[in-house]
Design goal:
6-stranded parallel β-sheet, alpha/beta, Rossmann fold, single chain, 12 strands, 2 domains, about 350 residues
Length: about 350
């Protein structure tokens, strides 16, 4: 039954699988609007690891977010839960060993996924990866194309809510910040080689304050608060409080620009239509860069070892350590000018999501 065509009349329950990480889950959201358009009456669920589930909260195109925790949930227990839902179509956008087994044993008539190594046996609808570099968004959308579903929407989505809007509004008021007037920096990143050094973020933050007379908000992830606090003290920036993903998104939504490592907040900002300058080195912006027409990347172009994907660097992480704050600062100004020109001619993307001021007014 490999590469079977689907009988749409038999599809009443659909499961999409993309368990992690924050950015990867966010970049899979473009499949949902057209999947819902194609199957307006179907139950559409999304299987994701618990920590990444806030990315999907409030998404109007899915009925239910099904979560699991790898620390306590076995593959057998997840399979059991999935089977009880009697899905007709499972779309595995991750295709790692665990998700392939879940898909294979789901009981679904139609099982779509990518033919990576032995995992191809889990699927009877094979989504053949394109040769060359293709952005993660298009990689996910190819599953729809393989199913014969027209792709009309390619934008990732991240939905804010009332609580996060009120949180951001209070933060701005307490720190005398005006919406759209401050810049944000995010020091987090999934692995060490993706992170620009803290002292360089400090120097950049000082440049923004002294040259642009703009205030800076420092954002960070779990276990990174101490480093962020040091940057804030040294550069007279504002340290964001600990936040949920939604709360961070609501703060980002009110910023003029985000300067960030390759990370989940990078994708959240881009999805919300916030101009985003992303610092890249070991990862590929062609595959995982911020998606949209008001984002740019900056990296140390002098090196020929970029996009190595190494989590430990044998030569001193030169892609980050030799990327100068002046270069990042100049690129941030180029992006701001680009966005201002484009918006003045109505060619730039608009901000998406929920307007915080609308929420709290």
């Amino acid at each position: 039954m490999h590469n079977a065509s689907i009988d749409r009349s038999r599809i009443r329950r659909i499961l999409v699988i993309k368990p992690r990480a924050i950015g990867d889950v966010l970049l899979s959201t473009p499949v949902l609007p057209d999947l819902r358009r194609e199957f307006p009456a179907a139950q559409i669920d999304f299987l994701v690891e618990s920590f990444a589930s806030p990315v999907l909260d409030g998404n109007p195109f899915i009925n239910r977010v099904v979560t699991y925790d790898t620390r306590v949930d076995s593959s057998a227990s997840i399979v059991s839960r999935v089977r009880k839902n009697h899905y007709d179509l499972v779309i595995d956008l991750f295709a790692n060993p665990r998700t392939a087994v879940i898909t294979l044993l789901s009981g679904a008539r139609y099982r779509a996924g990518f033919p990576f190594k032995w995992r191809r046996v889990a699927y009877n609808i094979i989504v053949t990866p394109r040769s060359g570099q293709v952005h993660n968004v298009e990689f996910n959308l190819d599953a729809l194309r393989r199913l014969g579903i027209e792709v009309t929407s390619t934008a990732p989505s991240f939905y804010l809510d009332e609580e996060s809007g009120e949180f951001a509004h209070s933060f701005l008021v307490e720190n005398d910040l005006a919406a759209g007037e401050f810049l944000a920096i995010n020091i987090g990143g999934g692995w060490g080689t993706k992170r620009w050094p803290l002292d360089k973020f400090t120097e950049l933050s000082s440049m923004i304050r002294l040259r642009l007379h703009r205030r800076v908000v420092v954002l960070y992830g779990p276990s990174e608060e101490a480093g962020a606090a040091k940057i804030a003290r040294s550069s007279r920036a504002i340290l964001a409080p600990p936040t949920s993903l939604k709360q961070m998104g609501a703060i980002l939504f009110q910023s003029r620009l985000l300067i960030t490592n390759d990370s989940g907040p990078m994708h959240i900002a881009a999805a919300l239509g916030v101009p985003t300058l992303a610092i890249f080195g070991p990862t590929s912006p062609h595959l995982q860069g911020p998606y949209g027409n008001i984002s740019e990347i900056v990296r140390n172009e002098k090196l020929d070892c970029l996009e190595c994907n190494l989590t430990k660097c044998p030569i001193g992480n030169l892609c980050m350590n030799e990327l100068h704050p002046e270069t990042v600062f100049e690129e941030s100004q180029n992006l701001i000018r680009k966005v201002e020109i484009a918006r003045s001619t109505s060619k730039a993307g608009t901000r998406r999501g929920v307007n915080v001021h609308d929420i709290v007014s």
